[in-house]
């Protein structure tokens, strides 16, 4: 299986198609997104519970957060694979329901392979992050520990800026280079995970496909990132205003009413974000790694729903 180079405006195309995702089977797509959203909340809830019980210091809080992130990868990876397969089914006009998101957890569903890819990518993130901190982040960990300690001591009270320690000198270089590498690794993750979930590729070959595919499509991936950032600013402001108005109106009646009005809107927004995000991920993978006749705007031809089992 080979990777393809797309045009410079492909990033705009991926975003547009991600926004339009669900038109073929909205109940399945949005229902599955809602399931995955609630599953994604479980590690965070567990982290809050453990932190409330243990009441750790700054180092302990970072350790608990790292454990929650690791648990999130293990739990979410099969659901992400199931969601991508569900999207592929709807785009190929195959029968699909929201419960199909559980397919990787069933016998022969490749949950182990999906988790393996997620853990391997996380390992690369850690290795690259440690390398960047070693070169550019002298004093960064000590600075972060001091800031977290001040935050814990302040509680709900805002931190006095005069108490904040000075940021390390290499922080700007670290953030700039880290952003570039994060963008590249995001492309590797999207393409490689799609290869595992949909392409039937072993983890090591899917990782290679992700690296090569991202290198061939740096320009459209960069354009996609710029579009997301630019669009998130006005959209975020509008949503903030809407949620604030709803909260004020509901709060005038009772705080419980405000929460009852804002929470469903917030959850609905998160579901929409999941649909768009994984839609972009799917179309990126399909244009870079899919057959030539499934690329572009046209609907893909019918395909078999069988998933080939390829050993790692």
Offer a few descriptive terms.
312 residues, mainly alpha, globular, transmembrane helix
Can you describe what's shown?
The protein is mainly alpha-helical. The protein has one domain. 72% of the residues lie in helices and 0% in strands. It has nine helices and no strands. The longest helix is centred in the C-terminal third of the chain and has 36 residues, at 218-253. Mean pLDDT is 86; it is low at 298-312. This is DUF898 domain-containing protein. The chain crosses the membrane at residues 29-54, 60-84, 114-136, 174-200, 221-253, 265-285. Keywords: Membrane, Transmembrane, Transmembrane helix.
Helix and strand layout, with pairings?
Blueprint: H1 10-19, H2 26-54, H3 58-91, H4 111-136, H5 140-154, H6 171-197, H7 203-216, H8 218-253, H9 255-289
Helix pairs in contact: 1-8, 1-9, 2-3, 2-9, 3-4, 3-6, 4-6, 4-7, 6-7, 6-9, 8-9
Helix content: over 70%
Q: How far do the termini sit from each other?
A: 16 Å
**What structural category characterises the helix and strand content?**
mainly alpha
* Rg value: 21 Å
The helix tally amounts to 9
Number of strands: 0
Overall pLDDT confidence: 86
Secondary-structure element pattern, one letter each: HHHHHHHHH
Strand content range: under 5%
Organism: Lysobacter auxotrophicus
Transmembrane segments: 29-54, 60-84, 114-136, 174-200, 221-253, 265-285
Protein name: DUF898 domain-containing protein
Keywords: Membrane, Transmembrane, Transmembrane helix
């Amino acid at each position: 299986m080979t990777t393809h180079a797309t045009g410079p405006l492909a990033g705009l195309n991926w975003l547009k198609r991600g926004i339009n995702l669900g038109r073929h089977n909205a109940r399945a797509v949005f229902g599955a997104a809602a399931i995955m959203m609630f599953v994604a909340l479980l590690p965070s809830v567990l982290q809050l519970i453990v932190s409330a019980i243990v009441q750790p210091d700054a180092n302990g809080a970072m350790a608990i957060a790292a454990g929650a992130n690791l648990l999130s990868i293990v739990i979410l990876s099969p659901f992400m694979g199931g969601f991508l397969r569900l999207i592929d089914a709807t785009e190929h006009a195959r029968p699909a329901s929201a419960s199909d998101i559980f397919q990787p957890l069933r016998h022969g569903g490749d949950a182990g392979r999906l988790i393996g890819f997620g853990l391997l990518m996380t390992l690369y993130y850690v290795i690259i992050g440690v390398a960047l901190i070693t070169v550019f982040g002298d004093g960064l960990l000590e600075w972060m520990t001091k800031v977290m300690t001040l935050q814990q001591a302040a509680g709900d009270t805002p931190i006095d800026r005069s108490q904040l320690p000075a940021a390390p000198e290499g922080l700007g270089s670290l953030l700039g280079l880290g952003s570039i590498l994060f963008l590249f690794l995001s492309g590797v993750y999207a393409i490689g995970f799609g290869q595992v979930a949909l392409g039937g590729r072993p983890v090591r070959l899917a990782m290679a496909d992700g690296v090569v595919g991202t290198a061939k499509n740096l320009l459209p991936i960069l354009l996609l990132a710029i579009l997301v950032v630019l669009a998130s600013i006005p959209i975020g402001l509008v949503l903030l205003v809407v949620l604030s108005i709803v909260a004020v109106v509901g709060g005038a009646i009772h705080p419980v009413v405000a929460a009852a009005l804002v929470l469903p809107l917030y959850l609905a927004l998160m579901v929409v974000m999941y649909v768009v995000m994984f839609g972009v991920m799917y179309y990126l993978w399909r244009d870079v790694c899919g057959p030539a006749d499934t690329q572009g705007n046209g609907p893909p031809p019918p395909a078999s729903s069988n998933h080939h089992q390829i050993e790692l």
